[in-house]
Automatic annotation (TrEMBL), chain A:
The lineage of its organism: Bacteria, Pseudomonadati, Pseudomonadota, Alphaproteobacteria, Rhodobacterales. NCBIfam families: HEQRo_perm_3TM. Its main location: membrane. This is Amino acid ABC transporter membrane protein 2 (PAAT family). Keywords: Amino-acid transport, Cell membrane, Membrane, Transmembrane, Transmembrane helix, Transport.
TrEMBL record, chain B:
Residues 101-128 form a coiled coil. It comes from Cereibacter sphaeroides. It comes from the Bacteria. This is Amino acid ABC transporter ATP-binding protein. Gene3D superfamilies: P-loop containing nucleotide triphosphate hydrolases. InterPro entries: AAA+_ATPase, ABC_ATPase_HisP-typ, ABC_transporter-like_ATP-bd, ABC_transporter-like_CS, MetN_ABC_transporter-like, P-loop_NTPase. Belongs to the ABC transporter superfamily. The lineage of its organism: Bacteria, Pseudomonadati, Pseudomonadota, Alphaproteobacteria, Rhodobacterales.
């Protein structure tokens, strides 16, 4: 039992490696900010393409969404980080992760936006257009605010997935939270840094998960 | 008749193989209230929705104060839609905005009025439909009749030349119909040009200048309400009116 505590819940080791983990956490936060912001924007454009009545926009948008949803994000990441250099396109680990997960998440955000936009009754668009608003104004002021509100739990839920997904960045040696914790583990020959990292993830995501549940219950009511 | 405010010329609309409107011709004079009646599927709503191109006409012309709305570019269409107010059966207020914001939105975005100006105008229009005191409520807190009156205020705030009403009272509980009809009557008395698709025969008899009976995508008969209701000439009009009265 004492060995167990010493190897997994060693406060001394945790305190010692905390600065390293905090550096990792900061990298995770930067990564999430980039991937979430890019994904929300990219997803919106993909969704609008998929909902367009112009076939030359709609079909490519669907193709891109399907492709990105079917491709495992780790495959995409390793291809971008380790495959593209063969074509003379070497990019930093951070850029590789940001691009790979931005692509992957755009597709998921796009599907959520699409459901949201389709949940807004056609009469809303008609009323806005009948008042002389342009397509863009109608989208920005009438359709999107309602669409986003209708799918807020799903958007949040996907955002939780994004945060978890960034731990895959450790595969390309990006020093985010998990990578830093694992490094600390090998330096101290002790699993406590990994336990600490898990706790940090939990602390970060548990409130979000609770929030999603509350929204879902409120929408269901 | 002087130049009509709204003129529909040889309007046709087909959905695939289906001919919904065949050669509709109709003129509405300035300040006139024209009622369109007819069985469901007769094309009356489609005709109305062609007047601001929510439905794209297949052929024909629709002149608003002399300008054709059918052939114009999309930017010109957005400007012309400001001159044609529309009220829907289902109200379609924006549920995520307060009542006054509903009435302000297009004034700010399409007419480019300042916020203060739009707000002042919105409150004046809400006052006109008797709902100024509900300006800061959300639309879902209002009764159907109140929502429809806000929708009328929203259209009026843009200073339209013509108002289109697409079955404005059909979704309302009977006791709420009167308040909406009163607003429409007041609008007519102030000189608004109005084209109304509705089944409110009593109101048509009392307030309309002219009644148009449509069936099968055609205007079958038109005339003053007392004539159409008391003395319909066409067989189809007679059949429809006897069914409605029964």
């Amino acid at each position: 039992m004492q060995d167990f505590i010493r190897l997994f819940f060693n406060l001394e080791v945790m305190a010692q490696t905390l600065p390293l983990l905090m550096q990792g956490l900061w990298m995770t936060v930067k990564l999430c900010a980039a991937v979430i912001a890019l994904g929300l924007v990219g997803g919106l454009f993909l969704a609008l393409g998929a909902l367009s009545h112009r076939r030359w926009l709609r079909w490519p948008a669907f193709a891109v969404i399907d492709f990105l949803r079917a491709l495992p994000p780790l495959v995409l990441l390793i291809f971008i980080y380790s495959g593209l250099p063969f074509a003379g396109l070497a990019i930093s680990p951070f850029a590789a992760v940001a691009v790979a997960f931005f692509l992957n998440n755009s597709a998921y955000y796009a599907e959520i936006y699409r459901a949201g936009i389709q949940s807004v009754p056609a009469g809303q668009t008609e009323a806005a257009r009948a008042c002389g608003l342009t397509t863009g104004q109608t989208l920005a002021h009438v359709v999107l605010p309602q669409a986003v509100r209708n799918v807020l739990p799903d958007l949040l839920s996907n955002t939780v997935e994004v945060v978890k997904l960034t731990s895959l960045a450790s595969v390309v040696s990006l020093a985010e939270l998990l990578y830093s914790a694992n490094m600390a583990r090998s330096l101290t020959y002790n699993a406590s840094p990994l336990v600490l990292a898990a706790l940090v993830y939990l602390l970060l995501l548990w409130p979000l998960v609770r929030l999603v549940s509350r929204y879902q219950r409120r929408l269901a009511a | 008749m002087s130049r009509p405010m709204l003129e529909i010329v040889a309007l046709e609309k087909t959905f695939g193989e289906l001919k919904v409107l065949r050669d509709i011709n109709l003129r509405v004079a300035t300040g006139e209230m024209v009622f369109v009646i007819g069985p469901s599927g007769s094309g009356k709503s489609t005709m109305l929705r062609c007047c601001n191109r929510l439905e794209e006409p297949t052929s024909g012309a629709i002149l608003i104060d002399g300008k054709d709305i059918v052939g114009c570019s999309s930017s010109a269409l957005n400007r012309m839609r400001l001159e044609v107010g529309m009220v829907f059966q289902g109200f379609h207020l924006y549920p995520h905005m307060t009542v006054v914001a509903n009435v302000m939105l297009a004034q700010i975005k399409a007419l480019k009025r300042s916020k203060d100006e739009a707000r002042e105008r919105a409150l004046a229009m809400l006052d006109r439909v008797g709902l100024r005191h509900r300006a800061e409520t959300m639309p879902t807190q209002l009764s159907g009749g109140q929502q429809q009156r806000v929708a009328i205020a929203r259209a009026l705030a843009l200073d339209p030349k013509v108002m289109l009403f697409d079955e404005p009272t059909s979704a309302l509980d009977p006791e709420l119909v009167g308040s909406v009809l009163a607003v429409m009557k007041d609008l007519k008395d102030s000189g608004m040009t109005m084209l109304v698709v509705s089944h409110e025969m009593g109101f048509a008899r009392e307030a309309a200048d002219r009644v148009v009976f449509m069936d099968g995508g055609l205007v079958v008969e038109e005339g003053p309400p007392e004539e159409i209701f008391a003395n319909p000439k066409a067989e189809r009009t007679q059949a429809f009116l006897s069914r409605v009265r029964a």
